[in-house]
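Colleagues,

For the teaching module next term, I've prepared a clean inverse folding example: a structure given as tokens, and then the sequence designed for it. I'd like students to try predicting residues themselves before seeing the answer, so please don't circulate the second half yet.
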């Protein structure tokens, strides 16, 4: 038997842009939240979040965040903003929501004179204001663009004269983790509603602090007021101050002599000897001026209508316990005070009805069923300390609402001996888990701030509704986009959110939450990806190895093999689930193939009406249709020279160019599968390509899919040879026949947070690192597939030089698809860019610009991605997407280059005015190609060849061609290996075809 083996490229016919995703009809879908599960293995819950965020920001050498450097970076950025408030590279950003999902909110304030005006503070997104009772929100103007000095709002208050003040930074973000992982504040600010300005009241000094443990104003957990006096609770204790005759508050917070005309500390831990300087956790001021202050270390102080030295009494012998205490005073009765304690689980809810003289334990610790900080009655751990919200009905001293993961409600009577009920709040409508603020506007109107944003009840808590339209403060870890313009982000405590540009209903900025259908729990969303193959596939993750895929028509499910499932189930995965997807529907290096058999007994039907028998001749130019291994996608092969089927049993082996590689990091190693996009695969095969995956933070494939770059602490590892095999024998590192190789790069320092591959040059990559350190944070490599020598492109060394990039955490990067010198990075302080990343000879010659000024702000940016497909393959070619950690999604089309204006009718096959039947063969071709087309009339004809970046690379004038069928040869030897578009133009009409050059 003769086997005619033809390993050549073929052309995919059935690859729609986004497949079924492109044709979705409007559906009414709403995001529903499922709380994070508590796994037995690994670090999870808020502790996992805290540890992960701390790792991104800390100095690996010390394991701590350098607050000196945090403040230095803050002032350097402010100085750069003053030099030039316009984005140097001209990137104009548009916020893309989500406008129906919020984000972590620790502060809500209802205006004292107009209940329709409500303020909300996001922990990394800044201050927002609503003027229509939370029907819609807008960010305050003074925090937009490069004006946003600090967006970590932790608390809000309003003085009697109507002024709005807010504190920044919270110690509660660290939870049970390694500490210091939360957003770092900078003191107290005033929002001037008349102008929209944000003014500093008491902030870190412009000089670098000497205190290595953090400055006075890194964290302000609480702020309150009585009259026009401000009370501030920071990590250095409790202080108050009055404004002077001009309305200005003092600037001396240290106040070594405790001068009452400055910021004054009235609380002594040892009377006459030592002032109380522990971290303040909560402050509440009663209607009569009495004050309740909760400190770390389970310390509670109460004053009875006074705030002078000696007016405060520490409450002892009551049994307060827990890592966090929160307090609330009944607005209708200043004698009634509540103190809520938690340390993971509830450590008690206590009440006094006589301003602290006596106390009663209302809800003891111990019972999971009665614990708001546990997810269910079966949980043994909780999230109290991270969550801890309490509010008292202004019309009923005995009606108290407490929020943690769950919402509980207490109703008590009898001031002399409070008695009553403590139950899960019976509500209609979901209230998002992880509640941080409970605020009564009146007895019926209640607001809750949570990790899901703002929720409101207008019937005393019987029903609740999310109020997040315009409150775009979602915290994303990653972002990805599809060819049809959809984009998805993995978010903190809000799962994986898909924006379909309105295809699923709602507005263009609305999102739907993707959920698995196989029992996996979605709480935190992490890395995300899209495949444009088949019907279009999205890949979504959750904490601790959760991973699933879905299409528009098929609900999502996992696709692990048995080995991977065991690893994930045993907790052998990081908290941050790390994935990466690569695909190419025209891969000329593919080792996959499809065999077509020709027998003497049964004719082979290539297509309806096209039957081949053994002994036939397949003539050059004949088109042979066949089916890809991936999802049954239709392919074509054009015969380049005559093939005689001499004997029965002859076969053609045709290359399957539709390829996909998908990687997942586990503690046991990095695994790769080629079946992630093959929804028709009967089994999924994963291969372990590295011996260890512990500490992996990011993955990136080279543009050709042959190399996988792995980011870890202080190093980048490259796995090469992924194109050489398609099974475990050749790809799994445990195989004796493995064909892949590994190289560890040199030159990086710190935790590698992001790797960007050049879409046009496999030897170029950009590497980013996290941490507040004085080491470099952005690197380039120009020999990524060989030596992997990585060098810094941090830029000028002087902070006053043009193009200086402060030493701050950098989380991600992308290389522009048309100009690799243009690199965009996501940082702790917004988005920055350069236009000479690879052309600069020395690191200090690379010039960076702050690109946060036009439509954006200085919010952390954890994900950056650009659509690298050409405009004939995608609807969003060149658009850049940001996944920010506190301000939702942003996009810019400033880097779009569209050189070919496609005719949609031609692409869809509906054009009847220019019936060219344009085809290119052989396809792929080497040095010479043949163009075949039909013309309806005699006409001057020109062919133009474009590369996939949209650049015109060749024009061939064919002269006047006759009506009817025409065949023209063209020279392609000068074209580089790759994919191209031919545009055939005749008169006012044209048609388009795609071809591949290979050698």
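(Answer key — instructors only)
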């Amino acid at each position: 038997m003769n086997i005619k083996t033809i390993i050549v490229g073929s052309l995919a016919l059935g690859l729609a842009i986004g497949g079924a995703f492109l044709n979705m009809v409007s559906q009414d879908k709403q995001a529903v939240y499922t709380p994070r599960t508590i796994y037995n293995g690994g670090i999870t819950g808020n502790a996992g979040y805290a540890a992960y965020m701390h790792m991104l920001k800390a100095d690996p050498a010390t394991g701590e965040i350098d607050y000196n450097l945090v403040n230095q970076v803050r002032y350097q950025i402010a100085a750069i903003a003053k030099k030039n408030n316009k984005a140097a590279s001209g990137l104009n950003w548009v916020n893309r929501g989500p406008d129906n999902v919020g984000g972590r909110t620790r502060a809500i304030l209802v205006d004292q004179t107009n209940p329709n005006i409500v303020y909300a503070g996001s922990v990394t997104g800044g201050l927002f204001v609503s003027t229509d009772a939370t029907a819609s929100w807008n960010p305050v103007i003074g925090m937009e663009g490069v004006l946003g000095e600090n967006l970590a709002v932790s608390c809000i208050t309003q003085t009697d004269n109507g002024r709005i003040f807010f504190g920044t930074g919270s110690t509660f973000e660290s939870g049970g983790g390694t500490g210091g992982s939360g957003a770092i504040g900078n003191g107290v600010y005033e929002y001037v509603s008349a102008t929209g300005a944000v003014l500093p009241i008491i902030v870190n000094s412009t000089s670098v602090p000497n205190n290595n443990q953090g400055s006075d104003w890194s964290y302000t957990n609480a702020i309150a007021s009585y009259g026009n006096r401000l009370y501030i609770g920071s990590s250095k204790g409790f202080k108050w101050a009055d404004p002077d005759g001009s309305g200005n508050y003092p600037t001396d917070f240290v106040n070594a002599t405790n001068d009452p005309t400055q910021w004054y500390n009235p609380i002594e831990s040892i009377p006459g000897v030592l002032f109380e300087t522990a971290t303040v956790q909560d402050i509440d001021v009663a209607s009569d001026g009495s004050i309740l202050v909760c400190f770390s270390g389970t310390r509670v102080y109460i004053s009875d209508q006074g705030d002078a030295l000696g007016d405060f009494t520490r409450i002892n012998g009551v049994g307060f316990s827990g890592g966090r205490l929160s307090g609330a005073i009944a607005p209708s009765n200043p004698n009634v005070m509540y103190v809520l304690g938690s340390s993971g689980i509830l450590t008690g809810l206590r009440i006094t009805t006589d301003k602290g003289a006596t106390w009663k334990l209302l809800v003891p610790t111990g019972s999971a069923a009665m614990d708001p900080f546990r997810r269910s009655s079966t949980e043994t751990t909780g999230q109290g300390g991270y969550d801890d919200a309490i509010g008292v009905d202004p019309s009923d001293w005995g009606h108290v609402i407490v929020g943690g993961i769950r919402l509980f409600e207490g109703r008590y009577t009898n001031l002399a001996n409070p008695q009553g009920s403590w139950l899960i709040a019976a509500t209609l409508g979901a209230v998002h888990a992880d509640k941080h603020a409970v605020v009564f506007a009146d007895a019926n109107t209640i607001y809750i701030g949570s990790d899901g944003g703002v929720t409101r009840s207008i019937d005393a808590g019987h029903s609740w509704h999310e109020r997040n339209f315009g409150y775009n403060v979602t915290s994303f870890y990653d972002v990805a986009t599809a060819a049809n313009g959809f984009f998805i982000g993995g978010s903190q405590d809000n799962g994986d959110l898909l924006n379909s540009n309105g295809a699923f209903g709602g507005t263009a900025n609305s999102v739907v939450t993707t959920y698995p259908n196989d029992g996996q729990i979605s709480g935190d969303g992490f890395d995300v990806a899209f495949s444009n193959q088949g019907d279009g596939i999205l890949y979504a993750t959750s904490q601790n190895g959760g991973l699933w895929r879905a299409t528009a028509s098929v609900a999502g499910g996992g696709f692990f093999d048995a080995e991977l499932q065991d690893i994930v189930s045993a907790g052998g995965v990081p908290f941050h689930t790390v994935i990466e997807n690569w695909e190419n529907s025209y891969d000329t290096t593919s080792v996959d193939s499809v065999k077509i058999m020709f027998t003497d007994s049964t004719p082979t039907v290539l297509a309806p009406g096209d039957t081949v028998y053994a002994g036939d001749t397949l003539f050059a130019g004949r088109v042979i249709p066949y089916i890809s291994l991936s999802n049954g996608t239709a392919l074509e092969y054009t015969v380049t020279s005559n093939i005689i089927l001499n004997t029965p049993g002859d076969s053609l082996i045709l290359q399957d160019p539709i390829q996909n590689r998908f990687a997942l990091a586990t503690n046991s190693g990095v695994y790769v599968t080629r079946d992630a996009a093959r929804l028709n695969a009967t089994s999924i095969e994963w291969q372990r390509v590295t011996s260890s995956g512990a500490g992996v933070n990011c993955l990136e494939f080279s543009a050709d899919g042959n190399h996988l770059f792995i980011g870890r602490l202080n190093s980048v590892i490259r796995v090469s040879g992924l194109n050489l095999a398609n099974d475990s024998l050749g790809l799994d590192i445990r195989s004796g026949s493995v064909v892949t190789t590994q190289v560890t790069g040199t030159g990086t320092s710190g935790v590698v947070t992001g790797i960007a591959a050049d879409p046009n040059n496999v030897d170029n990559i950009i590497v980013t690192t996290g941490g507040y350190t004085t080491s470099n944070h952005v690197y380039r490599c120009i020999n990524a597939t060989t030596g992997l020598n990585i060098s810094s492109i941090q830029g000028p060394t002087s902070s006053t030089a043009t193009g200086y990039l402060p030493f701050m955490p950098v989380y991600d990067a992308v290389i522009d698809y048309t100009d690799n010198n243009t690199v965009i990075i996501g940082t702790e302080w917004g988005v920055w860019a350069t236009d000479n990343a690879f052309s600069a000879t020395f690191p200090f010659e690379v010039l960076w610009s702050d690109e946060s000024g036009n439509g954006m702000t200085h919010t952390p940016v954890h994900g950056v991605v650009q659509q690298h497909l050409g405009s004939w393959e995608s609807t969003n070619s060149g658009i850049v997407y940001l996944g920010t950690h506190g301000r939702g999604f942003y996009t810019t089309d400033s880097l779009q280059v569209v050189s070919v204006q496609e005719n949609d009718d031609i692409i869809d096959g509906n054009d009847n005015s220019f019936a060219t039947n344009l085809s290119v063969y052989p396809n792929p071709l080497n040095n010479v190609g043949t163009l075949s087309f039909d013309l309806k009339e005699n006409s001057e004809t020109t062919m133009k060849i474009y590369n996939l970046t949209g650049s015109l690379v060749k024009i061939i004038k064919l002269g006047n061609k006759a009506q009817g069928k025409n065949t023209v040869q063209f020279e392609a030897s000068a074209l580089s290996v790759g994919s191209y578009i031919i545009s055939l133009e005749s008169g006012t009409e044209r048609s388009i075809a795609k071809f591949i050059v290979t050698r």
